[in-house]
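Sat 14:20. Reprocessing the chain from the morning session after the first attempt stalled halfway. Input below, unchanged.
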Amino acid sequence: MSTTTPDAEGESGQGSGEGEVTGYGFATQAIRVGQPSESEQAHAEPIYATSSYRFASAAEAAARFSGEQPGNVYSRFTNPTVAAFSQRLAALEGGEACVGTASGMAAVLATTLGLLSAGDHIVASRGLFGATLSLFSNHLTRFGISVSWVDLTDTTAWREAVRPNTRMLFAETPSNPLCEIADIARLAQIAHAADALLVIDNCFCTPALQRPLEHGADLVVHSATKYLDGQGRCLGGAVVGDRQRVGEQIYGFIRSAGPAMSPFNAWVFLKGLETLSLRMAAHSERAQRVAEFLAEHPGVARVYYAGLPHHRGHEVARRQQSGFGGIVSFTVAGGREAAWRVIDATRLCSITANLGDTKTTITHPATTTHGTVSEAQRQAAGIEEGLVRLSIGLEDVDDIIDDLARGLPAAG
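Finished this time. Tokens:
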């Protein structure tokens, strides 16, 4: 079944990277791509809050449902506002097609179940988001999809983990929460030599700082909940790639299984994309300052941020990213108790597991984002009890640093 994708007149499906605005820069596309035409000529994109659509005749309804005629069918899989978001994100990532989903995890689920079958094998990095680790370990395996785990930065391990039935390599770069960096181009070579797909979770960088498809990745997944929104308002996800895999196979899974993005959330993400390049530059600038402060603080044992020259992924990040992002993690001596004291002593930072917000957030990964995975998996991924993750917001950076300076002595 083929997806109906937006064309220059704004017909709505799940999304295409072509049509409305070509030959313009990133910031222009982030503002102008995907604006649907409508009779009221509203300057801002409208929210199409409808579950269904009228048809001119029974024959037209049949043609729409069969896919023979483009156009709206039912908002579980065709909605103009969702299509506008999908078309815009596809353009920003440089992809042919994009599908919006109900959450970032729904995007990961749709990518795996939409493309893989029982008996297939995934090679994945140990340093994935906790929910992705759980999905791969506890759920995909129940459907006959096996997974091998490797160090994100060890390309030899990736190559040696490939089997005859390997169909997908899945990596998150920078990783959550240690900000490890994968060499996307080298992973793409390994994947394609095995006739497998390379999927990159681009949540931390967004296309404003990194475009994995340009480095050889086949698919990009997003939690739109994070930086694409930018203010912690809505849940959503997305998959970007080519028309066949994304526009047909993954879209077909979403049409049947139903993890749909709501029109209201899609509208919020559209507004978020308009300021994405400005926000990511500001997040990166502030995060660099915070990381440098932490690296010099006597109460901090180690800092994880690719913008620091001593970070082992620094040179790779410089090559494939235009900025280092807004996530900084660090460890303190004394384990969980010391980390909790640091977190509880802050006053400005919000204690929450979300990230990508204008507000700086602070969390303890071992008991939150990675709290549902086994202790062995946490240790393998380097998630220590003394680890603290920061998502640096857009407050005055001196205020953020002062708040951390208040909290760090509490570690003892």
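The chain has 15 helices and twelve strands.
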